[in-house]
Amino acid sequence: MAGDGIMRRMKHHHLWIIVVSVLVVSSAAASAHDEMAQEIVREAHNPPHQRSDDRARFTTNRASDIVLPLPNEEDAFFFVVYGDRTGGPAEGVRLLAQAVNDTNLLEPDFVITVGDLVEGYNEREEWLVQMREFKGIMDHLICPWFPVSGNHDIYWRPSQSAPPEEHEKDYETHFGPLWYAFEHKNCWFIALYSDEGDPETGERSFEKPESQRMSDVQFSWLVETLAKARDAEHIFIFLHHPRWLGGGYGDDWDRIHQALKEAGNVTAVFAGHIHHMRYDGPQDGIEYVTLATVGGVQESKAPEAGYLHQFHIVTVRENQIALASIPVGEVMDVRAITGQVSEECAALGDLQVEFNSTIDLPSDGSAAHEMRISFVNPVSRPIEVTMAPESADSRWRFVPDHAHAMVEPGARAEFSFHVARAPAPIDDTWHPPVAVVDIDYLAETARFAIPTKRPELPLLVDLPAPPVPAAEQALALDGRDDCAMIASARIDVPDGPLTLECWLRPEQFAERTGAITKTEMSEYGIFVNDGVPTFLIHLADRYAAVAGDRALPIGAWSHVAGVYDGTEVRLYVDGRLVGREERTGMRRRNDLPLIIGADVDRRGNPMSFLTGEIDGVRLSTTARYTGEQFVPERRVRADEHTTLLYNFDALQGRWIFDESENAAHATVRGGAIVTQELPDE
Fold first, then answer.
1. Nearest CA-CA partner of 623 in 578, 587, 572, 658
2. SS (H, E, C) 236-281
3. E strand or H helix that includes residue 484
4. CB-based contact 311:103 (threshold 8 Å)
5. Interval 233-280: pLDDT, tens
6. CA dihedral 326, 293, 222, 314 (to 10 degrees)
7. 501 inside domain
8. Are 447 and 480 part of one and the same domain?
9. How many independent structural domains does the chain possess?
10. Is the separation of the CB atoms in 185 and 153 below 8 Å?
11. Which domain holds residue 365?
12. Do residues 438 and 386 make contact, with C-beta atoms less than 8 angstroms apart?
């Protein structure tokens, strides 16, 4: 930041007071950070992992005696569980394919589904097509995968022509047994079948308790398998319907749960069907887990609460498991992000669009303009672009409402829109038009979305001069995101004399605070870092920086003026000369905005905000103040040397009226408001 490295002298008799203050502030800050960390870091579900202090496994040539804790060498592994694929749009298979890509990046020991693999509810010919589609995608997994049957996999339609077993035979021919178990790393995994149907009528339904009972044959097999797995570290159960929820599932699960409980080593039960995540447990030491979808119908009512496309990762250790969910498409391929991808996506993130002209907005608020928005693709790969003008003010109209383009490397993309607004006042509901720009970088094997850009369409607004209020007004700033900005193109300050001034009433200080800035290793600005005013102007090859001798008072109005007369840089506080430096040279320019109430970064965005009030901001092309002292005007006025002048008499829409002949009206950002000046405390 401009102004970094400026050293301020301290008198010796203040040193210990300052040191003690720093210690107190640092201690308070550390305490606040500890509290924040404790709020963010949640208590772990499991006890800490076993560690080893085996010194033979740790080596260094440093003098430290510390042996960092080492992980236990006992085996741990993880597997992945998928939810429902079906019941959603046909393109749900693409989500399934993305989940396969994600899973291959993770490389679990295996994947197991919890049913509804195909759309089903059809006859054999169509069912077989869907089966081949599903298996064709799943077979791209580099690990084994295990299916569990769901109602979509079994139910036949139309029911009048359904064979008694419906799709059971098709399922067992192409997917596997309706129930089965396997052993892996001293754990057992049991897949159950939850659509056997009513044992009396054969009716299959997941809404009728009599159709949601486990047959004696399957139950006996389950009990025998639990006995076979009695020495396993963990047993995991998988089925489609979460029968433990009761309701239409009835109460048959009670006897199943009792058998699992008696086994003594069943760790968790997984199901799907309801298309959202749910956790019920532990019950008698057994965790009951329901998954959402991997391509199935998804209402996305509350994605962060489990209404989304996702899969579970289950990490297994000797005495515990860890459960985590990953949204489909959120696993990043480390090897895909090459240096080229990283650098070129960053270049697209910095990309600035170009506007062919400025929209004239007369005092009646109307507009009719043909706007062209363009940019050149700066990278070596093609990009896909969507451009859509919009506004939170519904009185704007755009034709067309959006446009798409594939832009080859080095090519120019150009989008044309008719922008119109019927005559309407610039009132509290007024909002500017913006160009919403979405860019995807198309790498060889992946696409990378660049954060959405929302540059405002340039406007030249004709504002009436507001009446001078009975009491002085000021711009109130909250120190978080409030400021006012003036585009560089509206500011014409030739090399030579310059004066930048304002009235300030700070409410608190920060280590780094901009008051009026256009500085980024160039131009000029006033800072109040730690409350001490500093005027900077970049002349020749470096800054001239003149700092005050003390901090501004909190809760009181102070006048700050930076002056350059062509040979000397001076700083005045309340009309008193507090610093000077002999300097000359050409001013280094930039095209960044002038920001009132904050510093400006290299992209033209505000940062390091001021907390308090600011008034009487004036930029002049003359050295207004000379000598050792002067009496500042409480209300500054415009003359032939005035480039910008803001007395903050009113907020018109989102603009502050510029009283200079430039009519460079400032745009308010954040929640900054114009309010009656607070008196000194």
1. 572
2. EEECCCCHHHCHHHCCCHHHHHHHHHHHCCEEEEEECCCCCCEEEE
3. strand 483-486
4. yes
5. 999 999 999 999 999 999 999 999 999 999 999 999 999 999 999 999
6. 0
7. yes
8. no
9. 3
10. no
11. 336-460
12. yes
